[in-house]
Amino acid sequence: MTLTTSAPATTPAPVAAPAVPSRGRLRPLGLGEARIIGGFWGERQRVNAANTLAHIRGRLESEGWLGNFDLAAAGTLPDGRRGREFADSEVYKYLEALSWEIGRSGSAALEEDLRAVTARIAAAQEPDGYLNTRFGRPGQEPRWSDLEWGHELYCLGHLFQAAVARVRTHPEATDGLVDVARRAADLVCTVFGADGNQGVCGHPEIEVGLAELGRALGEQRYLTQAQLFVDRRGRATLADIEWGRVYFQDDVPVRDAEALRGHAVRANYLAAGAVDVAVENDDDALLDALREQWARTRGRRTYITGGQGSHHQDEAFGDDWELPPDRAYSETCAGIGSIMFSWRMLLAEGDAGYADLIERTLFNVVATSPSADGRAFFYANTLHQRVPGLPADPEGTSPRASSSLRAPWFDVSCCPPNVARTLASLDAYVATRDTDGVQVHQFAPAEIRTTLDDGRRIAVDIETDYPSSGTVRFVVRESADDPWTLTLRVPAWAAGATVRIGDGPSEESQPGAVSVRRAFAAGDVVELTLPLAPRFSHPAAEIDAVRGTVAVERGPEVLAVESVDLPAEGDVAGVVIDARTAPVERDGRVWVRAGVRPEPTPRWPYGEHRSEPAAMVEVPLVAYHDWANRGPSTMRVWLPTA
Amino acid sequence: MTLTTSAPATTPAPVAAPAVPSRGRLRPLGLGEARIIGGFWGERQRVNAANTLAHIRGRLESEGWLGNFDLAAAGTLPDGRRGREFADSEVYKYLEALSWEIGRSGSAALEEDLRAVTARIAAAQEPDGYLNTRFGRPGQEPRWSDLEWGHELYCLGHLFQAAVARVRTHPEATDGLVDVARRAADLVCTVFGADGNQGVCGHPEIEVGLAELGRALGEQRYLTQAQLFVDRRGRATLADIEWGRVYFQDDVPVRDAEALRGHAVRANYLAAGAVDVAVENDDDALLDALREQWARTRGRRTYITGGQGSHHQDEAFGDDWELPPDRAYSETCAGIGSIMFSWRMLLAEGDAGYADLIERTLFNVVATSPSADGRAFFYANTLHQRVPGLPADPEGTSPRASSSLRAPWFDVSCCPPNVARTLASLDAYVATRDTDGVQVHQFAPAEIRTTLDDGRRIAVDIETDYPSSGTVRFVVRESADDPWTLTLRVPAWAAGATVRIGDGPSEESQPGAVSVRRAFAAGDVVELTLPLAPRFSHPAAEIDAVRGTVAVERGPEVLAVESVDLPAEGDVAGVVIDARTAPVERDGRVWVRAGVRPEPTPRWPYGEHRSEPAAMVEVPLVAYHDWANRGPSTMRVWLPTA
Which of B324, B492, B607 sits opposite A327 (nearest CB)? Predict the structure, then answer.
C-alpha cells in the first residue's frame, strides 16, 4: 500500500453518523466506514428495515399524525388535527430512521417515501420558517405560548436530527428536508437568540438537534443557540408543575447539577446536547460536571439492564438508590437517550466505561423493546412483572405505557420510531478512530473501512456470533505499512478475557481496553475471547428494593426467570434461588437451582414470619430481551436467595 | 337499678354515628354514648376543633371553593369558578366535620358557621335539586356528561354524609342541610334509577352516601339506588383510560373481585358502600366477597402502617406484594377509606381483626397526617424518605401530593377535611354494643353510656394513657343487675396480654378478644394490660421491597429512624441494624443497636459487592406519626439487618 498524503481534491464526504463533534478524544465512523453485516444486531436491523419502518409509516398515516401536515398546508387546522401535542416529532423521527436506512441500503422505495413525506412537511411550513401543526393558527394557541407542554422546540429538534441524518448520508439530496430544517432553525435563532425570548422548551431535544445541525451545516449560530438553551436551563423559567421544575431539569443549571434527575428522557437528551456544547466550546468545567453526573447516574440511578427511570408517575429518575424492579419504568426512549449521552462522552473522553453502559443498554433495553417481528414494542421495561398481561390488539393503540406485553402503537408513541432510528444508525456505534488507529466498542459481524487523519486506509472485518459465543475475530483486510493500533473494549464483566494475535499465545486482558499496536498486514488476525459463563450479580447494599436477591447475567445479557418456564402452578412470586450453586449452561439455556414456594394464605404479613423451605429443582432462565414472547407471563430479574 | 322494659314514649334519638346499619353483629354507639375525654386522641380532637376546622374554613374561602356556590346562586358561573372539579366536596366534608364537632361540643360558633355555609350552598341548588358548581350551566359542560372525571355524584355523596351527620346529631335542626341533601338524592334516584341513566361515577362515594342517607331518613329508595350503583360497577361503562378501568373499579363487578384494586380511595369508599348494601339486603354472597377482598387486601396490599396504595401515578393499589416503602403513596384519605370499610365489616361480623386494622391505621396514617398544630398535613405517607424536603409555605398551596413535609393546603385538598371529619366523629369508633353487652375496640380515656336493646343502661369509664402505657382500666359506673358482657379487644400484637377483674388474679388473654360476663355493679373495675415492649416485626417473604429488613413497633405504633436522631453526617440510607439485640425503651424513647455506613463512591452497583461493616451504636427511634416535626429530614421504617 502507498500512503496518500496529499489532500483530497474535493470536500471530504461527511461522516454519516448521528454525532460528529469537531474535536474530542475519538472520531466517529460513519455508516460507510463501519457496517454491521449480520449477527444479533444485523438481524434486528433487517427486521427494522423490512417491517418496523413500514409499520410506523402505516400508523403515522392511520393515526393522522402525518395528515396533520396536510391539514396545515390546506389551511384547515385546527379542525381535524389528531394526536398529542408532540405528534409532529414522530414523523421527524421516522424521517431520521428512513435517512439512516437509505444511507445503509440505498433503498429506492424508502427514498421515494422520504421525498413524499418531506414534501408534505415542507408544504406545511410557514413563510417565516415556523413549523408545527399544533400552534399559531387561528383557533390554536399562539406560537411559543406553552413552553412547558407545547413541545414546539422539541419537535424541531427531532426535525433537525432528521435533516442531519439526511445531509450526512445524501449531501446532494434535493428533497428539501435540509432546507426545511434550516429555515426552522433560523427562525429559532431569531426568536430565542441572545436578545430574544429567554425561555427553554419543557422537553429538551432542541439543544442536541441544533448543535448537530450546526455541525452538519457549518452554522456556528445554531451551536451558539444550543449553548444559549443549555445555559438558560435550570433557572426556573418554566412553571412549577405538580412534579416540580425538576421534571424539566429546570431546577438547577446544567453545570451545577450532581446527577441526572426528573424525566429520564428529558434529562438524557439535555445531557447529550450539553456534551455537544461543552465539546465545541472547550468548556471543560461543563464537561467535568457532565462526567460527574454520568458517573453518579450510572452508580445510583441505573438498573442492571442499563434502564433508567424509576417512576411511572412522571417517567422520572428516582432519588439515589431508588430502583424498584417492579415499578421500573425504564422507558425505551430513556435508554436511547442514555446511549446518546454516553456515546458523546465516549467520543469526548474515550473511556471504555461509556461503551460498557451503551452495550448493556443496547442488549437489555433497546433489544427488549421490539417484538421479534418488529411490529410491537415495550414502552416501559419493567424488571419484575407480577401479573400476566393481556395480549395487545395488533390493530389497536395502547393508552398505557406500561403494558406487560408489547403493543403495536401507543397514544404517546415515541418509542417505536426512536428504536427505528437507533437500529438504522447502529453501525455508527461499533467503532471509532483516532490519529493512531481504530477502536472497537461493540462486537458484531461488521466491516470497518476507514481512513486515518494522515490518509492511511484501514480495513478490518469483525467475525463473531457474539453474544452466542465470546469469540470475536478481527481480520485485517487492508493496512498501511506503518504501525497503527487496534483497540478493543474488554467489558467490565469480562474478567479473564484473552487476546491472541495470529497463532501467538493467548494473553489475559484486564477489563477496560486492550490495544494491539503493530504494522498490520492484510490477513492478520486478532482474536478476543470474552468469558461468557453465566454469573451471579449482587446489588450494592444501598439498593433497598433488591436486597437479598441476585441477578444472573451472561456476557452483556441480563437473564430472567419467566413463569412459562416454571413447573405447573408455579409463579415467579414464589421463586427462591440457591445462590451457592453457580448457574450452568446446558442445551443452549442457562439454568439455576431454585425452589418455588406455594402461594401463602392471606394473613397480616408483618410480625414473626418463617418462610417454608422449597424443594430445589433446575429452572431455566430466559434472556431478558426475549421475555414476553411466549404469551402472557410473569417475570423477574432479581431472584431472592434461599 | 330497675330495668325499663316498656318502649320509650317518643321516637328514640338517632344514633349519632356515621354508619348505622339496620342489622349486623354489633350496633354502633353514637357520640352521646361513647365520648373520648382526653389522651392521645382527645388531644388530637382538641386541636382539630380549635385549629383545623378554622384553618379549613379559611382556605375554603380564600381558595374560592365556597365562593363557587355564591357565584352559582348569583348566576355568574362559569366565570370565576375556582378549584378542581371536585372542589364542592371539600365544603361538604367540612360541613360533615362541623356537624360531628357540634354534636360533640355543642359549639354555638360552629353552629352559626354551619348555618351560614349551608345557606350559601342551598342558594346554589337548582329547582330540580341539582347541585354542582362545575356543570350544567350555559358555558359549562352538561350535567352528567363526564362521569369518568366530573365527580358530580362523588360530591353529592359527601353532601349526603354531611346531612347524615347533621340529622343524627341535630334531628330537629332547621338549617336546611338535610333538605338540600334530600332534594339532590331524589334527583339522583330519578336520573339514575332502574330505568334511567345506567352510568356510575368515576369516583365511588355516592354509594356509601346514599346508603347512609337512606338509613338516616328511612328512605328505602336511596338504599335501592345505592344498590343499583354497586351492582352497575365493574361492567365497563366508564372509559378505558390510560390506567385502565381498574382505576375506577369498573373492571370487575364488586361481587366478583378478589381484592381491592385501582385507586385506593375509590376502592375503599366503594367497598364501604357495598358493605352497607350487602347488610341491608341480607346479601350474604356480596358480604362474603367483601370479606375475602378485605382479607386479601390486608394480607398482600397493606403497609405495616395500615396505609394502602403503592402507586403515585394513579394513587392506586399495586399488585399483591407490591409494597415499596420509598414509593408508598399511602394516601391519608385511603387510610380513612380503609377505616370506613373495616368499621362496616366489624359492625357486620364482629371480628377483632377489623378493629386491629382500624387501630393500626388510626395511629399510623390518620395520626401521621396532621401536624401538631393541625394546620398542615401529609397527603401521602411514605415509609422511606430518602431526601430531605423543603418546609412548606404556611400561606401557600402545594401542587404536590407527595411532599416530605406537611403542607397547609393542596391543589387537591381532600385530606385535610377528611382528617377533620374523622377526628370529629372518632368517639363513634371506640365501642359498640350488642344484645348482651358492650365491646370496646379502641383504647382511649372515654365515657361509655348506653342502653342495651332490652333497656338496661350501662355506664363504663375507660381510664388509660394508652399508648404511653398498656394499662387500660374499665370502671363500671352504672349497671343493670343482670349479667352482661364486657368484651375487650386484645390486639393481635399483644401476646401476653392479661386481664384482671377487681383485685382478682391476672389472667392471660389470647389476642382477639376477651369477654368478661358478670352481673357488674357500679365501681367494678376490669383492668386490661397490653405488653408494650418494643418488638421487631419481619415482613412476609413475599414482600420483595423490604426483604432483609425489620421494622420496630411498640404497641399500636410503628417506629422509624429519622436522620435528625443519627450521629452527625449520618443518613438513614446507611443504617444497618443489629436484629439480634432487642430494641429497648429508655428515657421515653425506643433504642436499637445500629450502624451507619458511610456513603459509597459512585461505581457500577451490580456485581461482586461486599458492604463494609459499620460500627454499632445506640440509635433512638421516633414514632412514625411524629416524624418530620423537627425540620427537614430523611426517615425509614424498614431497617436493613446487618
Answer: B324
CA distance readout (Å), A255 to A148, A287, A288, A550, B487: 21, 8, 9, 36, 66
Q: Which of A313, A543, A597 sits opposite B605 (nearest CB)?
A: A543
Nearest to A563 by CA among A512, A633, A509, A626: A633
Q: Residue B375's closest CA among B421, B416, B334?
A: B416
Q: Which residues contact B114 (CB under 8 A, 6 or more apart)?
A: B95, B98, B99, B102, B166, B175, B177
- Is the Cβ pair A322, B318 closer than 8 Å? no
Q: CA separation (Å) from B462 to B38, B362, B444, B445, B513? A: 10, 19, 7, 5, 17
Q: What is the pLDDT of residues B176-227, one digit of tens each?
A: 999 999 999 999 999 999 999 999 999 999 999 999 999 999 999 999 999 9
Percent of chain A topping pLDDT 90: 91
Which residues in chain A touch residue B638, judged by CB atoms under 8 angstroms apart? Answer: 544
Element (H, E) at B447: strand B446-451
Q: Which residues of B touch A609 (CB under 8 A)?
A: 538-541
Q: Which of residues 492-531 of A touch B (CB under 8 A)?
A: 492-493
- In three-state form (DSSP H/G/I as H, E/B as E, the rest C), the secondary structure along B265-303 is HHHHHHHHHHHHHHHHCCCHHHHHHHHHHHHHHHHHCEC
For cell 451504636, the residue is B617
Amino acid identity for residue B91 in this structure? V
Would an 8 Å CB–CB cutoff place B551 in contact with chain A?
Answer: yes
What residues of B are in contact with residue A304 (Cβ under 8 Å)?
606
Strand-pair category, B484-490 with B437-440: parallel
Kind and range of the H or E element at A299? helix A284-300
**What is the C-alpha to C-alpha distance for residues A363 and A361, in angstroms, rounded to an integer?**
6
Helix (H, G, I), strand (E, B) or coil at B263: strand
With a threshold of 0.80, does the pTM exceed it? Answer: yes
Summarize pLDDT for A256-267 with one digit per residue, the tens. Answer: 999 999 999 999
Among candidates B591, B596, B595, B594, which has minimal Cα distance to B569? B596
Q: Which of A537, A540, A548 sits opposite B547 (nearest CB)?
A: A548
Segment holding A360, helix H or strand E:
helix A352-361
Q: How far is the C-alpha of B335 from the C-alpha of B346, rounded, in Å?
A: 16
pLDDT at A432 over 60: yes
- Is any Cβ of chain B less than 8 angstroms from the Cβ of A400? yes
Report CB contact under 8 Å: B545, A541: no
Closest-CA distance, B423 to chain A, in angstroms, reads 26
A324, B319: Cβ pair inside 8 Å?
no
Nearest chain A Cα distance for residue B100, angstroms: 32
Main-chain dihedrals φ then ψ at residue A3, nearest 5 degrees: -65, 135
Partners of A309 on chain B (C-beta within 8 Å) are none
> What would you measure as the largest C-alpha separation in chain A, in angstroms?
82
Pairing assessment for the beta strands B584-586 and B589-596 based on DSSP bridges: antiparallel
β-strand pairing of A437-440 with A484-490: parallel
Distance in Å from the first CA to the final CA of chain A: 63
C-alpha cell at B341: 370499610
- Calculate mean pLDDT across residues B257-279: 98
